[in-house]
Amino acid sequence: MPKIELKDISNFVLIARTGSLTRATMVSGVPKATLSHSIRRLEDMLEVELFLRSQKGLHLTDAGRALLDNSARVFDSIEVATSAAQRAHSTLNGKVRILGSVEFGTSIIGAATLLLAREHPGLSFETRTYASDTPLPEQSDFDCMIFVGTAPSSDYVCRKLGNVSYRAYASPTLLEKLGTPERIDDLSHMPGIEYTRKGISEPWLLQDEDSKQVARYNIRFSVHDYWMAKFYAVSGEAVAYLPDFFVYYEVDQGSLVPLLKPAENVDQISVWVIYGAARHKNPRVKLVVETLCKQFSSVIHHPGYALIPRND
Fold first, then answer.
1. Which fold has domain 94-163+269-301?
2. Does the pTM of the predicted model rise above 0.85?
3. Could you tell me the fold of the domain covering 166-262?
4. What is the pLDDT of residue 307?
5. Among the listed ranges 24-28, 35-39, 97-101, 151-155, which one has the minimum average pLDDT value?
6. What's the pLDDT at 84?
7. Coiled-coil regions in this chain (predicted)?
8. CATH architecture of 6-90
9. What are phi and psi of 245, to 5 degrees?
10. DSSP state, residue 152
11. Which residues, 6 or more positions from 78, have their beta carbon under 8 angstroms from its beta carbon?
């Protein structure tokens, strides 16, 4: 089989349908000489004559008619396929794949997708988390990512959503039993929840009227998941050192009480949304990114779930 250029077949279909080189040039903008050369090359490769040339124009030969009947369907199918791709790209209906680091990804992604799903019924979501101590996944694995910490040095677009600050929290039940600490040293006799990252314990940096220091506490639970820490704290088992936004709803509902003060002049942790530059052209991804950027504070403070008080 001769190696035939697809462009030559495309030019042949265009000329056959328009009936002349002049009209084909007007439709496509391709120079007449280029089209003529393309047809001659195709005829030489196939060793057949495709057109009969006359003063009245071009007329298909039997070989030309056979080629048109079979090849035109291919290009019609391609046109249908490309139109479908463009419609899929331009619509808000469809799936968005969101990735998040394990520290806060579940909370932020859950709140954001819940908000978007309620406002845009045609959207669907695939959400996953990854360990923040591992390399960033390939861009093909996600549409956008929630990243907590120092923005990674990569080819991704990084847009800052906001900052995260920390404070000690306890349930009213625990405070009723053990008393409310007034000074940092008062925590030393209270059960606490240790959060470890990469095997390193996260320090509780707090401030009272006298000083700013790392608080000591009795380790009752050791976890590497903030949801687990919040679970123990809300259950009244121990004090937890948690991000403010992460317990906003629990504090608002009275299930947790903030203790002492967060340390002043301490660097806060930044939260970013990361995506490939080309992904922002997708209207679904753009909607997610812009919603996160514009409504981050509202999203993270209203997770959308309800605390149900126990009757016992």
1. D-Maltodextrin-Binding Protein; domain 2 (3.40.190)
2. no
3. D-Maltodextrin-Binding Protein; domain 2 (3.40.190)
4. 53
5. 151-155
6. 58
7. none
8. Orthogonal Bundle (1.10)
9. -65, -30
10. P
11. none
Q: What are the pLDDT digits (tens) for 76-124?
A: 777 666 655 555 555 577 888 888 877 666 677 888 888 888 888 888 8
Structural tokens at position 61:
């030969």
Position 181, amino acid: P
Cα-only R_g, the chain: 32
- The C-alpha atoms of residue 221 and residue 192 are separated, in whole angstroms, by 7
Residues of the chain with CATH 1.10.10.10: 6-90
178: burial class by Cβ within 10 Å (0-12, 13-18, 19+)?
middle
| pLDDT band, residue 265 (cuts 50/70/90) | low
Round to the nearest angstrom and report the end-to-end CA distance of the chain: 82
Residue pLDDT, tens place only, 296-308 = 877 776 655 555 5
Give the tokens for residue 204. 């509780």
**What does the pLDDT look like over 53-67, one tens digit per residue?**
877 778 889 998 898
User: In terms of DSSP H, where are the helices of 91-184?
Assistant: 105-119, 172-178
Q: Which two tokens stand for residue 212?
A: 């700013």
Contact 158, 152 (CB under 8 A): yes
Name the percent of the chain in helix, strand, coil, to the closest 5: 45, 25, 30
Length of the chain: 312
Alpha helices in the chain (DSSP H): 6-18, 21-28, 32-46, 62-90, 105-119, 172-178, 226-234, 248-252, 283-301
**Average pLDDT, whole number, for the chain?**
82
Amino acid at 61: T
Report the distance separating Cα 309 and Cα 161, nearest Å. Answer: 32
